[in-house]
Amino acid sequence: MGHDWLSLWSYLYGPLAIFLVGLYGLLTQKNLIKMAISINIMDFGVNLFIISLGYVPSGEAPIYTEAVRRYLPSFTDPLPQALVLTAIVISVAVTAFVLALIIKIHGRYGTTDLTKLGEMEL
Amino acid sequence: MKKVIALLLFLGLLFFIGTGLEQGLKLGEHNTLSGKAGEIYLKRTVNSEDPATTPSRVGFGRETDIEENAANTVTSIVVGYRSFDTLGEVTVLFLAATGVLALFFTPGKRKRLALAKPNFILSVSSGFLLPLIILFGAYVFTHGHLTPGGGFQGGTIIAAAVLLLYMAGNAYKAPAAGLKILEGLSGAGYLLIGLAGLLLTGFFLENFLPQGKMGALFSAGIIPVVYLLIGLKVSAELSGIVSDYMGEE
Amino acid sequence: MIMQNPVLLIAVPLLLAFLIPVLSSFFKGAVRFIPVLAGGFNVIAAALLIPQASGSLTVTEIGGWASAYGISLLFSSQMGYVILAVNLTALLAIFYYTLNERDLGSPLAYPIAFTLALSGVNGMIMTGDLFNLFVFMEMTAIAGYIIASHKEGYLGTFRFVVLSSVGSVLFLMATAALYNATGFLNMTLAGKSLDTLAAPFISIISVLFIMALSSEAELLPLNGWVPRVYKDSSGTGSVFFASVFSGAALFAVIKVMLMVFGSRYAYVHQGLLVLGLVTLAAGEAAAFKQTNIKKMVAFSSIAQSGLIIAAVAAAMSSGVLHNGLFSAALFQLINNILAKALVLLGIAMLGQATLQEIGGAGTKKKWLGVLISVGVLSLIGMPGFAGFWSKFFLIRELVGSGMLVFILVFLLAALFEVYYYLRFLQALFLGKSTAPVSSPKPSWVTFILLFVLAALIILIGFAPDYMIQAVSGFNPGGVL
Description:
The complex is a heterotrimer of chains A (about 120), B (about 250) and C (about 475). Helices cover about 70% and strands about 0% of the residues of chain A. Chain A is mostly helical and about 120 residues long. Chain A has one domain: Orthogonal Bundle (Helix Hairpins), CATH 1.10.287. Chain B is built from eight helices and no strands. The longest helix of chain B is centred in the last third of the chain and has 26 residues.
């Protein structure tokens, strides 16, 4: 595939780099809240990647309106947009749960630092 | 040391996954709709004999006999063609609200988390902003099949209004029990619509109401009804999560 | 007839779960019966669906949309048995919760989690669409998070959340990439269009999918959460993880491998074979050194997952689906689901945690000891129990295929298993207790649950031909 440098970076490597920044955060951070934020960053990266896969050159939003009454081949792909809608809701749900979990951990053990927690429990 | 390994892993994975995916993906200039499911959804020819070559009979503002008559294609995918996924998504949100409830459960009453005293601007402006926000949220989810938006977006906006109420006055408490009932009833309503489709036509979640004219408010069969239910459910759910975090019983 | 639609296995528990908050405001006591109702309905529906299902896959289209572009559910008689085993163990675990563990935590939230877990696992097993699998995987995962925090096991739950989230975003990335390259989200059609794509792309996609599914199926590399969560969770929770979630997730991995990648990509299956064998070896070695019983069972569970995946991968690695090996793997899956549930429920009723503490408990509570032994002996592969036959069939097929390395690792692993499980039984019956026997006094109804599982295991042990016939002939081809 002969992709040029700019489109490769903005559609593939950029979102992939954001995802990997989140993964890097998960591996190196010790604070539980920062780990939760890293999970969020991973979700952002993947959602961006999915949307970028739906772009069609000079694309039109896939909504039929007064201006666009019939089917055109230059609509952007609506399916990745629907996928991302679902994925965002799921990531919100997981974030809500994990933050509540962190509050309970802090309440029980008095710290949100992973190394201190590791020393406390077996 | 761990950071160095993680950094190397970062660069290695970036190169490795990127070059592997690059060979198969069609990005940007190379991407077309032809041959993809997205094209079939746009043309509304999923149930035709040969979806790829059947011409599209979509026409805005006309009453045509086509499968899904919602003007917003993304909505007709989310609530029409792939409605089962949306049912799962609604359930996931329900589970998250349940999980927060389970974690914050204490037998007996809890006192509400006291925030800093709100300043004058916040407490006055929240009074007249509140109905505007709720109106806007309701607009978003009732018009989900015509313009960008829908149940999830509208519900979130209304839940933000509840959060505003919490922040604008330390005495406010959302009616948690009522929210739970609303949440359960709207979710059950979505499922009952699906089961009604099963009984009437033999397919679960079939769009069995009349399709109407594309672009009108009352069109696209069950889609506005479902989005209404989803909007109510999501707003009840997120408000419930906010109230759990704020320390209600 | 309406009753014969597989969608009901998913829709009815969903409906009941949504009604729980509504009902709890009016009839407080009714809430605890709803999960039992949902589980019971599912078991009866699954049992009714099996006789009228054919041996090849039938497609149920959701919403009446053509299955090429809509979502469809797949069902066959072989899958029916896996579904029956999963739902039955879930029902028994729910019974155990209703009888014994209702006081731990919110009486509203946990019934909801158990009921929705039922929908989630049935959806994972039956769906034929990749994104739908993602949604049901998330539903099952979040239900799992709630169940894992049942007895305040917060740290284990946190680790589970982290690993599971990594897995799910990888799955999403792979699904989107596959859609962009092939244009379909339906598993079979996406698989058919893979032929036109370059090999590096297919390798990356397969690696992403396997890593994504490994977290819930208890395979390496994302299975670090398993020992801690098993140890800290309640009895009901451990049965859900060992039998219900891991059984459904393993079947989902098998389905993706079979329908998306098919038998055409030998290198994918060979990689999976190596992964399975490494998981098997690592799991057994770790279980060997454990003194905490629940952690020992956790590592054993990891090892068994590795074995099943390795067997399925071996069945597909030669280019054509090897039916004998595949059926033996499915048989082993069903046996594991039943036996692990029995062992974990029994351990929960014992109440003690380490090998020293349970010393002699088996002599004081004879029936409990006997029932746990049935489960353990089936896991080891003692003749007369179901586990013997599934291992026997596996070895026979492997010898027939000439896979020497696999057979070696398998036999070594079996040796380890025999050792540490017999050590457990020895402590149970012959040991001297170092801690006072202060376990909960369960009612006789709870014993019935264990009896049902033990009876099934012994029944299959004496009549294995019915079972092996029931799960053979799984044919994924010819389905749109």
